[in-house]
């Protein structure tokens, strides 16, 4: 089995719409606003993952709470930067603790 089934992009937009309660148009809008990133099949069909389902529900909740798409995108970018920084710090601490070199 793959490393994480939640990351496999295998679900079509129609199924995503049923799972999330969001219209296909709204899902495509979130993609246009760079909030969700489906893969495309060779025929151009959008493919989503279970992680994308969770992400779409989170986006819809934030929108319902009055947030704008640019605010959600900014929050996600900040979260990614913090995650990258945390990973660098952890690698540095491990390298120092075990006297490792790159």
From TrEMBL:
Xref: InterPro entries: DNA-bd_dom_put_sf, MerR-type_HTH_dom, MerR_fam
Recorded GO MF terms: DNA binding; DNA-binding transcription factor activity
A Pfam family hit: MerR_1
Keyword Magnesium attached: no
Sequence ranges assigned to domain HTH merR-type in this UniProt record: 10-78
DNA-binding in keyword set: yes
Keywords per UniProt: DNA-binding, Repressor, Transcription, Transcription regulation
PANTHER family registered for this protein in UniProt: HTH-TYPE TRANSCRIPTIONAL REGULATOR TNRA, REDOX-CYCLING DRUG-SENSING TRANSCRIPTIONAL ACTIVATOR SOXR
Protein name listed in UniProt: Transcriptional regulator
UniProt source species: Sinobaca qinghaiensis
